[in-house]
Amino acid sequence: MERSSFSRWRSVSEFAPAKRDTMPSADRSPFSPFHAPNLEKVPPPPKRLGDSPMPRPPKAGEAYSPSLPPLANSPPHDYPELMKTEIPGTILGLVRSLSGAAPPKKLLHKILNAAVRITRADTGSIILIDRRTSSLSIEAARGFADRVVKATRLGIGEGITGWVAKHGRSLRVDDVRTDRRYVPLKKNIRSEMAAPLIIEKTVIGVINVDSTRKKAFTKEQQEALETLAAMSSRVIADALIHDRLRKRSEQLETLVRIAGKISSIVNLDRLLEEVTSAATSLLGARMAVVRLLNPARDSLVIAAVHGASKKYAKDPPTPVKNSVLGKVLFSGKPLLVPDIAHERRFRFKEMAVREGVRSMIAVPLHVGTEPLGTLAIYHPVIDGFPEDSLTIATGLAGLAAAAIQNARLFSNVVESDERFRLAQLRNTANAMTAELAHEIRNPITVARLLVMGKPSDPPEFLGNDDRNVIIRELDRVDGLISRMLQRAGETAAPFTTVDLNLVLSQVLVPARAKAATRNLLISFSNSANLPPVRARMDDLWQAFSNLLDNALDAARSSIHVSLRPVSRKKAVQGIEVVFEDDGPGLPEDFPIFEPMATTKKHGVGVGLFSVRRLILEHGGTIQAGNSPRLGGARFRIRLPAAVASS
E strands along 184-277, which residues? Predict the structure, then answer.
């Protein structure tokens, strides 16, 4: 992004008013800037000047190219006559041809070329004021080397141009070598003249012209420059505002595109890489860094870097205490550091030198009042960020913080889902182990009895040695099965008093996060003061999560979970939990709770089998059917209350 002071303009009304002396009435010219707004009073030029025809001043907005006689070849005594005839019409025609919608650079060069020609100058420049830094920036130049233009940055009041900007009055210096205010930009310049650009008593810039001759400029030329400055000030201000609004619109469009892009990224590392890349391109910076607050909340750890060296990525964490970034994080306020080298709170000045950065913007990453980290953006130039950079960076940080929170939530959901799947597999494996062991043990027991028979009547086809080997091996298998049964039951936690409202509230958090990604709504209705149940909380969590997962896969738009008491003779004997969805429902007579039975294309049929087993282990019942209210599947679970209550 090209850096230009145009982007730093807020509105002309924000500039501090500048003083301006009033010229004595005897010195006023009909072409002075004090008469410029009343264009009708400017006398029209004659149709001819000698033998040279005068061009018609164009109408407003009409393309115009100043057509002046070769003033440099005209004798000096001709200039007063030209001021009365040709030059006012030329200035008026130029100003009428200017448009505030034009690119500021093009507009300023057009005005500067006219200023140089009507004053017979050798060089010239238009300087604009950056009120944020109280400095002057050359935005259009003629006759100066590019390196001089880029390197020159004067303060308000510094040099002849700075004096004009500060006092709001034009100035003509016949010999710059005798004026202590002069700041040399070119060795052969001998005289200089400058006029302020003023809007509503506020100086917004200066038009400056120079000559290699002493006393090169006259009073009439000074008045001509004042007239040009006064008549072009408004269109310059309009162009700057128009350019600022255009750039703001482009930045907002870019932010919208970035928001759409990062909101769809759920991988945290990829998300942070995208944020740092967007920050550097959006603000024309060299590098950007996201640091996240560590669990101990005492330091900021680098999480993503764009544009920095590999060594920078290995820098140690930044302590939040007594550091610039720590203050930004916990105050919640963005910070602009125009010059890192002179910021006493900035601890890593050697890093700035190593990475070639001079200024910094730091903004907090917050979700509500919860601090997540910081986004720091670095520019290679002192005070290199354009106006509105803090606003843009803050907007990007807000989008990034929300996306980081979403990515973390998604990661937690995935981890929770993985834990659930592992628990499900463990319980299923334990159940299958127990059932398999039971089924194997029965025939082995029978075989053992048959082989042993009665000691006095051994089978004729077995010798004593064979018989002993078989019995010993059957005993070994029986021991293995006993140990398998023991292992299958050793991970089971003891039953405790469990609040079903609490369990369902926890289960619904990740379920609703999944539902949001599919545009599904999960509603929950419950009853107050329900008695607890005796259960293993993890097992109920697993069973309820499994049922919600099935509902999420099947539902079209909504899922409903309800919790209500089951009463008998005015006493609450148990609690009923119902899961319903508006999906296609269950086929009739389908063995939904049997192992390997599934209605899913990619299911394996162990989930509901495991759910039923867990509910039965808790002394409850489960029924499957279709919901009359929503039309999809309905699972109704009843669990006994730990203590019956009235």
Answer: 191-199, 202-211
